Amino acid sequence: MATKHEQILEYIHRLPIGEKISVRQIAKEMGVSEGTAYRAIKDAENKGYVSTIERVGTIRIEKKRKENIEKLTYAEVVNIVDGQVLGGREGLHKTLNRFVIGAMQLEAMMRYTGAGDLLIVGNRTKAHELALEAGAAVLITGGFDTADHVKKLADERQLPIISTSYDTFTVATMINRAIYDQLIKKEIVLVEDIVTPVEKTAYLYTDDPVERWYTLNRETRHSRFPVVDGQLKVQGIVTAKDVLDMDRQLPIEKVMTKQPITVNGKTSVAFASHIMVWEGIELLPVVDDHNRLQGIISRQDVLKALQMAQRQPQVGETIDDLVTAQFRESGDKETLFRCTITPQMTNYLGTLSYGVFTTIVTEAAARMLRAYKRGDLVMESITIYFIKPVQIDSTVDVQAKLLELGRKFGKVDVEVYNEGAIVGKAMMMCQLIDR
């Protein structure tokens, strides 16, 4: 039977898009305490079902699909710019297509403004009115208000009119940054993207006999299965080694490995792969916040996803991408790579940042190991012996030397030079995975 928390989440999920909810209303409707209602609403916000806006409340919004994650709702814009909603609250759940900066003549401004847009403009009341009539929402910069008839029009059209104390340039920068951050998130492969759902997962119950393992083994040709209780909560995992020479009538819970490592759907595949390599695990149960089985991922699924991700065009560049893009092969046999220190790679003092130095070491070691052995690798440990200041626009030479190479691991020594002087030294250990 579903818990009160799950019942509230289901209730919120069934609400129409744009519906406003409150802790008190949910508590009364579902017959629970306000504390229980509050926790469920926060969980719904984390899951993307609702958005909470200061001085407005909590609104049911449409959960965005991953391919549309770069689209923002007007509710999200309010939170990004610390805005105040002057009118049109009923339309906060809507998604905006693009934003238009109103720094031109009125007639020209309206040529660029259409339905689903967000016009960013100062205290130009006529522009506010014409934008709403064209089907666009309005964001007023500089902390200005607007006329009462414009607020009334916003309510009628269900198009938000928002005021923020920031100037136009700052607002555009803030919105661009929010979209850019979401683009980067879009490229990160999560466990929920590759999970084999529970409906297609073979699993055992704690009171099943060992004989049931042999049945599933014949049907699926797999040897590892999660073990759950009556509420589908994961209690253990059972493998061929666990059932070997065991009485086939014994309950599975007597032979299974208890308290197995599990992951959540929001866990990144890269993190899951590290766990699998580090712990020597072939299969991970995927669970929800209440430890209920949602499906499984295998090491093969993870490797396939990581290899696919490497072939995808990058939409939102991370610092790692900026660093590795600077790497180029050097003609000198002793120097493997050369890299220019760009402004993005420096700290507030204008010298090479510690984090970027780590990325340089990691990339150099990875390229060195791939030259010797095909396959994927997971960084196990990195030791940085020292790092000296390297100023902006400098060119560094990166030397990587293979210290040890085994079947399952590799050890690389990396030295970084600037104008012939050594400026950093580190050693990296990696786990190697055959494809």
TrEMBL record:
Its domain of life? Answer: Bacteria
Record domain CBS: where: 195-254, 256-314
Give UniProt keywords alphabetically. Answer: CBS domain, DNA-binding, Transcription, Transcription regulation
Q: Reply yes or no: does the keyword DNA-binding apply.
A: yes
Molecular function via GO: DNA binding; DNA-binding transcription factor activity
Task: Write down the Pfam families for this protein, in alphabetical order.
Answer: 4HBT (PF03061), CBS (PF00571), DRTGG (PF07085), GntR (PF00392)
CDD domains in alphabetical order: CBS_pair_DRTGG_assoc, hot_dog
Gene3D superfamilies assigned to the protein according to its UniProt record, in alphabetical order: 3.90.1280.20, CBS-domain (3.10.580.10), Hotdog Thioesterase (3.10.129.10), HprK N-terminal domain-like (3.40.1390.20), Winged helix-like DNA-binding domain superfamily/Winged helix DNA-binding domain (1.10.10.10)
This chain belongs to the protein called CBS domain-containing protein
